[in-house]
Amino acid sequence: MGASQTRAEHQYQDLADKTGFSFEQIKNLFQRFQQLSGNEETISRANLDSIPALANNPIRKQIIGAFFDKRNQHQDEVGSCDQIGFEQFLMVMSHFRPPNLRTTDEEKEAMRKEKLRFLFNMHDSDNDGTITLAEYRKVVEELLSKSGEIGQETAKAIADAAMLEVASINVPNMGPEEFYEGITFEHFEEILKGLEMESRMHIRFLDVDTSTMRCGKSQS
Amino acid sequence: MPAKRDSHSPAGKSLPERGLLLLIVLVLLQGSVLPLGAASSPNTSRNDYVDNPQVKVGKSNYTKKAFPVLTLDYHHIQAPFEISLWILLASLMKLGFHLIPRLSGIVPESCLLITVGLLVGGLIKLAGEDVPPVLDSRLFFLCLLPPIILDAGYFLPIRPFMENLGTILMFAVVGTLWNAFFIGGLLYAVCQIQPANPSILHKIELLPCLLFGSIISAVDPVAVLAVFEEIHINELLHILVFGESLLNDAVTVVLYHLFEEYSGAGTVTVLDCFLGIISFLVVAIGGVLVGVIYGLLAAFTSRFTSHVRVIEPLFVFVYAYMAYLSAEVFHLSGIMALIACGATMRPYVEANISHKSHTTVKYFLKMWSSVSETLIFIFLGVATVDGPHHWNWTFVTVTVLLCLVSRVIGVVGLTYVINKFRIVKLTTKDQFIIAYGGLRGAIAFSLGFLLKKDLFPMREMFLTAIITVVFFTVFVQGMTIQPLVELLAVKKKQEAKRTINEEIHTQFLDHLLTGIEDICGHYGHHHWKDKLNRFNKKYVKKCLIAGERSKEPQLIAFYHKMEFKQAIEMVESGGGFKMPSAMPSTVSMQNIQPKKPPPAKPVEKAEKAPSQLPKGREEEIRKILRSNLQRTRLRLRSYNRHTLVADPFEDGFDDLLIKKQKMIELEKKIKDMNNYLTVPAAPPDSPTMCRARLSSDPQSYRAKPESDSVPTIHVDLASPQSPDSVNVMDEFRRAGQQRGGERGEEDQGLMMRPHKTGEGADGKDPQKLTRCLSDPGPSADEEEDQPFLA
């Protein structure tokens, strides 16, 4: 009660403004953060790696990498860090908030851009602003990595076909000698505009404490 | 002469079409006259039976008549003949509607068909005969309804359905319950007013009213399908209304049986209600379970059909029908069983059966459901004429009004609750369309028909009211929904086909969101979906899918499907490299491959074709396509009963004919031109290839031997581009063009090209002479800068 409560609230208020979460959600996420970090101040990659449920995920490395990617912090920094604090954790999580009934169209548009940017950063590992063929190939390979014994060639083929598609949509009249450098962010937006990211790329953040109950659905 | 032609063209009718219309009228007349004959023939048959004993007894009295050369024996084949006649009539009607130019745009087909049914029924009645009981409930529920539902269930888009399942269930269960009780209750109340003038309405008790309410409250899948298919509304609304119409069957079945059962007794106790709820769960879950079991059986059977491919479609149909019948045995929900069966078996069966069987299944389902739907609407018209009717102004108008009002209130109220749980909220426009799309149809009518007269003295009045509501919804709402959709600017269906980028990113997103949920620590529905997928992959697919395909991840399966489709199109289009795409683009593999330095020495071994040797034809085709995979946004015809989904082979037949003509002309031209050249005509090449070839000399002018239909991978060592991309295409082109050249004359229907939309340059001729830099060539066509691997 008293002073400590208001300090925490003040801190949460700050975070809430920056990330858009509610107090309840921040509290729950903080508890999870404590759990992951072993009550430390920061978490490292090893902490996230050790989540057992993630073991089956084919793109685990990219997901973990995204948490440590400075580009997702919206502060115009690049590179990656080794340890992140709660605020950075929240910032990354905020990319997965869903829109609500009151979100205006411009906000939805901004949200979509933000989410697409997150995805783009995940693919563009060398941060040169384009997703080159090699990077895209790597993405497809990772996607198919847990799926068994398909050869490298199929992944390469799929990536090539996808790249071709992007180029065909965005720069349809390329001469035979020109070279398509890579997918820029605008092209990326263009090819994914059918997917309506702002409604698809979200998870439900909990308002209630689920450490006692293990069922999933509740209101966000 | 020209004047005559002009007079034909505005009407759009030519002689064959007029002949068809005449045929339709004749069939109509025949259809109405024959029941006359049929009605009279039982008399003759009775006479026969009377005569026969005499003949048998008095065999010695048998006098020899002249051998009958030609006899008329109608009643021998009466039943099948009449059935076939009805089907023929229905199909001819459908053809007829589309001949009349603007009619099908304004009036939905269902209305036209009901009108035709009314006409036929009227004709029959005028002829003084009994209208055959066409909408006999057994016929309807056992023969006419299952094809439509199976078609809907087999092609149900699973992903949007599952994503919106909560909403759909809310509308189906709670919405139908609300409708039933609201309508039933208020009707009873209305019937009880005016105590001063007792009318027959006062005799109606509460339970029959509630029964009537439950019959009339269910949204009908047939009507919804018929109307919604023509308006091309966006996927979400379509799946919401359609899913609701399918899933409310369980509620309807339970309510119907409950009230029917207890109408005799007169009261319903709390225990009965409780049992009703349990019954609902049993009916719904039992129906789904039955369907799933049969679906898995069908999937398992299809694993072994690799040697007898021709009967593969049969398994799909028969297992599904058995699921329906088995569910009906126990009074479970047959519709839900069918849907579950179709949806369960589809992914596994499609992985197992051949491409042709897949096409067969698709075509047959669409055909049967189309005919069924047509017949249902015609019969509805006929049965309306038949009656029996008892018109009561109060009852009917109150019913219609209450239906509308209760639907609106129900939808609005439910949406308010549902929106609290949904991410993509339903807007007011959406709610309006959902409310307006609540059409009633033949199921309600058949259920009313099933009522027994002695238990329900008001049966005729009920039937009249039901028919009025059905007519009102189908005609008024059906006709006006299209303009309303336009007016409200409701989002329409997206026409573009799923691209491979979208597929990749959908999968990526799935994994990403699952991962984030795991990091967050709670088991959201992504987590469970992922678990289900893994279970499916690990155990179920191994059981149910034959051979290697069981291990194929979804992305690869999608990719292969796309490649295969394009391979077929390319092979069948004769290798012409005008591949249609909504956006013709000149991009090809070379544009995205990082530039490699040209090989120092044109040595064979260094530039061998990609290391995998072609294992089989499929492998080769795949490689060819990989290098040329260009098609991006295929124009996909929207899902429609009457045209099939994404079938490029049927469309553009006119284009095909024009192209064939052009090709024939070009061939002639080239044959002429061949006489002028001193070098033998080498197969056409792109400018770059030609330039490349020039650099290493002798190969470019050697006429390549005529290859058979298998495109072989031939490496041209001088190419600066990546070896696996360009030459393959050339070889293929050559092969195709040679074939195309020979077969240009006789080829009747094999060379189908997909429907091309949205592109200007049509006849890009596939045959182009090699252009040497020093010899520009005489043909004018060569001026166009032919896009490489267009």
From TrEMBL, chain A:
**Native species:** Pagothenia borchgrevinki
Question: What SMART domains has UniProt attached to this entry?
Answer: EFh
**Gene Ontology molecular function, alphabetical:** metal ion binding; protein kinase inhibitor activity
Q: What's the protein here called?
A: Calcineurin B homologous protein 3
Cross-referenced InterPro entries: CHP3 (IPR052490), EF-hand-dom_pair (IPR011992), EF_Hand_1_Ca_BS (IPR018247), EF_hand_dom (IPR002048)
Query: What family is reported?
Result: Belongs to the calcineurin regulatory subunit family. CHP subfamily.
Q: Which PROSITE patterns match?
A: EF_HAND_1, EF_HAND_2
Claim: Lipoprotein is one of the keywords in the record = yes
Q: Residue limits of the EF-hand domain?
A: 111-146
What keywords are assigned to this protein?
Calcium, Cell membrane, Cell projection, Cytoplasm, Differentiation, Lipoprotein, Membrane, Metal-binding, Myristate, Nucleus, Protein kinase inhibitor
Record's GO cellular component, any one?
cytoplasm
Report how it sits in the membrane: Lipid-anchor
The places in or outside the cell where this protein is found are: Cell projection, Lamellipodium; Cell projection, Ruffle membrane; Cytoplasm; Membrane
Question: What biological process terms from GO does the record include?
Answer: cell differentiation
TrEMBL record, chain B:
May I ask which residue range the UniProt record assigns to the signal sequence? none
Keyword field contains Transport: yes
Task: Give me the reactions it catalyses.
Answer: Li(+)(out) + H(+)(in) = Li(+)(in) + H(+)(out); Na(+)(in) + H(+)(out) = Na(+)(out) + H(+)(in); Li(+)(in) + Na(+)(out) = Li(+)(out) + Na(+)(in)
Question: Where is the Sodium/hydrogen exchanger regulatory region domain positioned along the sequence?
Answer: 582-689
Does this entry carry the keyword Iron?
Answer: no
Q: Major location, coarse class?
A: membrane
Output compositional bias ranges, type Acidic residues.
780-790
Q: Where in the cell is it found?
A: Basolateral cell membrane
- Domain named Cation/H+ exchanger transmembrane: which ranges? 87-486
Q: Which GO terms describe its cellular component?
A: basolateral plasma membrane
Keywords in alphabetical order: Antiport, Calmodulin-binding, Cell membrane, Glycoprotein, Ion transport, Lipoprotein, Membrane, Palmitate, Phosphoprotein, Sodium, Sodium transport, Transmembrane, Transmembrane helix, Transport, Ubl conjugation
**How would you describe this protein's topology in the membrane?**
Multi-pass membrane protein
- Please list the GO biological process terms of this entry: sodium ion transport
Which Pfam families does the entry link to?
A: Na_H_Exchanger, NEXCaM_BD
The record's similarity note reads: Belongs to the monovalent cation:proton antiporter 1 (CPA1) transporter (TC 2.A.36) family.
Q: What is this protein called?
A: Sodium/hydrogen exchanger
